[in-house]
Every structure is written in C-alpha cells, then in structure tokens.
Amino acid sequence: MRRLILASLLATTLPSQIALAGPATKEQLLTPPAGARHYTVSSVAGKHGDVWQWKTPDGKLAYRMSMSLRGWVTETDEVVTVGPDRRPRAIAIRGFTDSGDATEDFSVDAGGVAHWKTAVDGGSAPFAGKRYNTYGGPALSGELDIEALVAAGDKGIDLLPMGHASIRVGNPVQIKGAWGTKAVKLAFVQGLGFAPAPVWLDEQNRFFGYAGITSLLPEGYEAAGPQLKDIQDRTTADMVRDVAHRFLSPANRTPTLVDHVLLFDSVAGTYLPDRAVLIADGKVANVGAAGSVAAPAGATVIDGRGKTLLPGLWDAHRHVGGDDWNLLQNVATGMTNYRSPGTMIDETLSIFKRRAAGDLLAPDGKVSVIIDRKDPLAAQGALTVLSADEAIAAVRKIKAAGMWGVKFYTSMTPAWIAPAAAEAHRLGLHVHGHVPAGMRPLDAVRAGYDEVTHINFIMMQAMPQEVVDKANTAARLEGPARYGKDVDLDSPEMKAFYAELAKRGTIIDPTLTVWEPLMTSDGTAIPPEYAPFASISPPSVARGWKIAGYPLSDGLTRDDYRKSFDKMVQLVGKLHDAGVPIVAGTDGYGLELVRELELYQQAGLSNAEALQTATIVPARMTGMADRTGSIAPGKAADIILVDGDVSRDLTSLRHIRTVFLDGYRLEGASLRQASGFSGEPQ
C-alpha cells in the first residue's frame, strides 16, 4: 500500500516525506485567487486533489496543492522568485505531506552562493550555471524545470545538490477536453531516476501534465489520462523491447554448468556444499555432487567456489504495471518471480503478452486485481463496486480475464466480503487483501480471506475500535504506530488469534520494509532498505530515500514509534512460531527484499526459514511450485548465482553474479547497468 505522491518531475522520484517541527497548517497556507490555473490529481477511481498556480502582486510565482489519497493528506504551497535568467533564485515551500512537515527553503545570496534546507539535508554551493532540484513541493511547480530542460536541449542541466538532467521531446498527438482539442507531446526526462520519466508538453513545449495510474492534468482534461498513459506505456514498451532482445539472445541460452557451488535446497531448508548443477533447454537438467556432472559440448562452465546458487527470489507484494524499467531492475536484483497484489487487467495482459514474446525482460508472476467500494477513499486502479452483487460480478470479471486472485480493499463494505469471497473460491481464485474498515483481521479470515497483506492489518486485531472503524484512512498506520508498543503479543487473545490463523492455513504478507522507514527514520540516514544502493543510484533517487519519518503526534516520540515497529517485527516471529505461513513482499521497488528477509531473521526465523519465504513458500502459494521455487531436475531454470556465502550472511543476496531466467544466462553487471545502477550494491 505504498502511497503514490505526485512529486515535481525534477524533484525526487519518491514521495516527499519531510517531518520538521511545526509545519504550516492548512489554514495558514495560501488561498488560490479566482482565475488561478487549475490542475487536478485523478485516477480511474475519481478525483484525489487539486493544484493551482498564479502570480502574486509582487511578480512571484505561487503554487498550492491539496490532495488526499485514501486518507493520506498533502497540503502544501510554494512561492518562487525567478531571476532574469529564468532560474529560481528563492523557493519557499510550506505545509505538510502525508508524512510530515514539507518545509523547504532555497535562496541565492549576493555572492552567488546557493543555500538550501530540508528536513533531511541542507547545504551550500556556488550557484554558477546550475539549477536547484527541490526535494518536494506542489507537483505543478516542476513546470519551471521542464521549461529549462527544453531550452537547454541536448546538453541538459547540471543540478544542485547533485546530478544532471536532460529531456527528449517526441511528436504531437491530439487529445480532447473541456476546452477543446489540444496537441500534446510525450517527452522523457533523463537523469533523475533509474529510467527515462514520461511527461507531457503542450504545442509550445511547455509542461502540460503527467499521466499514470494517478495523473496530474489541467482541469477539464482528466478523461484524457488513460489515453496519454496508454501512449506512454506503448512508447516505453518499444524502448525496453530492444533491451530484452539484447539479453534474451540464443547465445545466452546455451547449456551452463555451475560446479563446486554452495546450493540452497529450499524444500528442505538446508545448504548443500560442493554441488554441481547443469542448466539446459531452459530447465535444470541435472543436480549432483561437485565434479560428477559432465558439461555438454559448447556449455559455459562457471566455477562456483565462493558463491551460492539459489532459486530465483520471489517478491510476493510487487505491484507490477506502469514501469517496465522497474521489472528489468527486479531481474537485475535477483527476482525471477513475483505476486502482484493489485494490477489493472489491461496492464497485466500487456505484461504477460510481451514477456511471452520475448519483448519484455521481466520476472514471471501471478496477479490479483483490487476490488473496492466506490468511494473517495477507494484504491487507485481498483474495480469499484456499490453492492455485493457488483462485487461478485467484479470477481467474475477477474476470473474471465485469467487473473490469479482478488484483493479486497479497506473501503469495502464488510457484509460484501463473504459472498464475494465465496464466489472467488468457487472460481478457484485466491482471496486476500487489506482489512476493510470496521473489520479485524480475524473477521476477514472468517469471511473468506486466504491471506492478509501488511503487518499493520495483523496488528489491527489488538487495536481500539475507533482505529478499526477508520482503517480506510491514515488510521491504519497511525493506530499501530501509537498503540503497537503496548500490545501484549503473548496475551491469551493474541495466542488464540495466531492459533486460528495457523489452523486455517492463512498466509501473512508482512511488508515490514514499508513500515521501517516511516516509523524509525529521523532524517539522519538513508534507511537500511536502500542504503546499500545509494552510491550506485541517481543522486535524486538517493536523496529521496533519506526521509524524516512519519509525523509524530499526541506527545509520542520517535522512540515510541520505533518500539511499535519492534512489536511488528516480533509479531512476525510469533506468527511464524505458531505455524502461520509467511511470504516475503516489499510493496516497493523490489530493492527492499533482502532487508525484508533480514527483518524476518530479527523476528526469530532462521537464515534458511527467512529465505524460504522468498522462494518455495510463495511458489506453493501461487501454485507454481511444480516449476519454480526450488532447484531440482525438470524445473524451470529460474536461478541466481551470488558472490559469497548466503548461509552466513543474507546480504550476500545483493551481490548478483548471474541470473538464470527461463534458462537464459544473464550477467549481473550488465543487468545492473541496463536498469540504471552504476555499479554493484554494498
């Protein structure tokens, strides 16, 4: 349930999450005057927010943003002083995002030195010919930077605090809206993220909008969002097709023998030293003792000494769709399979079709589709319904499309869950999801859930009723953050809860790495999920990973939130000890997966047990254990070879030497380079 925040295109590619003391309140922020330019934030589920722009009486540019995504609120404003060269010489951002204080200040002094301050960083540097890249602020304010990138042409722009960006502009297309037909152009900004970022320009190459699952477009043109998204998705598909063809070549599918290697047996949960594995024709052809397996003519032989061979990793909470480049990066970090707990049907079918044709380099996976009640707090990208009958019809639509499961969301009416889940089970679909407001997790399980996603919803079993009743708002985090530290995990009630989950075989998808940065970070360091990748990632991405943590309230301290997170980690251990199946998922980039496994070790799982949650357990959950999730003759060659001894240190999983995907032998360093990394993670 990671929140999608529309940041400025020249700001960080991740949500603005600033938490300084004393943010400006909503009432203290600027009020847009009549006639201000008006943009909206929208999705197929409806409108989520507004952004305005106008000029102040003294000639400055002003912006105001007001947005709520399923209860995650952003209220910010920004005032920009533009110099004679059209570069901002002063920027003042106020307000708060869903994660705290958004205060940010930038200025250039008389000596030409730039100064900036946010909740997570601050500094000074010669302004020279550079341009300040804001950490946050209203989404529309990025239009100034788009204008500058277009003017700069191929040479691009050097940025402060670090980085370089450029833009490539495409051909115009026609769209219709309330103010008539417009010609708009798809452009891609490069240098800010791991991959080119799409943005739409008008006929004069000025910023027009952003299209995606959630779009930022001029008022009156919201209906064009899906059309624009489809165009940019097809354009991106053309880009990644060439990359896929380069890797998925016949030369990379010749037989491979990995000899004298440490092998992880995911079924037994043990490591086998000095083994040999032969891969041929896309499958595991033979497994035996080192030196006992002959390499066929023309085979590539890899000396496995000092390395570990494992089944490819699973991310059981990876929302695919909308970013083909991220799928490539997933492969680069050792992910050969995923379970998406929410992707739109059309995007899923596109991914499956292009992957099968060899036009998309991506893990293989199974997909659920979200169903939610039609409501302002409905999930973006969900099939929205207004009755139990409509929920059942949505389930049938998901089955007819060939999907694997249904995911119910937090605004669903509780009484609709049981009949919709029963229909899903009749059709052979997996049932999982967030716990709807007004229900506790055990209520959802008894109504038909096979799986509960996110550890905060498991903690909801012990929350006060007022938190449970508002679980479709920010209360789903704020409640566990406030009360979690005081929950007695060994109470008779909680033990009975674990026992019933175990008896029913209910699966838990904790996504601890969603909550660790929010609850434990204080802005002084990059969270451990991302720190190993910081030095090899674009500067804007690495800067965005450094967050100040979820805002504190009601006299609570950061240590209180950390204690509540510790209880979440302990809760995973209690569930595991009771026999409840755990699957590892990130609800993020996928980069967070190894940290997720580390946290399971902290919870009390052994090294091998933690690794099973990202190999054989999700393979069994999805019905794919007959072909993946373990290394055995006849199974698909979805395998990773890593430098180091994983049995001693799970972080060795980040040191990918080779990925075998459907039997293709893909070199780790080349995959990292193609997916936007500049080297190997720490």
TrEMBL record:
<feature type="signal peptide">
    <location>
        <begin position="1"/>
        <end position="21"/>
    </location>
</feature>
<dbReference type="Pfam" id="PF01979">
    <property type="entry name" value="Amidohydro_1"/>
</dbReference>
<dbReference type="InterPro" id="IPR051781">
    <property type="entry name" value="Metallo-dep_Hydrolase"/>
</dbReference>
<dbReference type="InterPro" id="IPR032466">
    <property type="entry name" value="Metal_Hydrolase"/>
</dbReference>
<dbReference type="InterPro" id="IPR006680">
    <property type="entry name" value="Amidohydro-rel"/>
</dbReference>
<keyword id="KW-0378">Hydrolase</keyword>
<keyword id="KW-0732">Signal</keyword>
<dbReference type="InterPro" id="IPR011059">
    <property type="entry name" value="Metal-dep_hydrolase_composite"/>
</dbReference>
<feature type="domain" description="Amidohydrolase-related">
    <location>
        <begin position="309"/>
        <end position="663"/>
    </location>
</feature>
<protein>
    <submittedName>
        <fullName>Imidazolonepropionase-like amidohydrolase</fullName>
    </submittedName>
</protein>
<dbReference type="GO" id="GO:0016810">
    <property type="term" value="F:hydrolase activity, acting on carbon-nitrogen (but not peptide) bonds"/>
</dbReference>
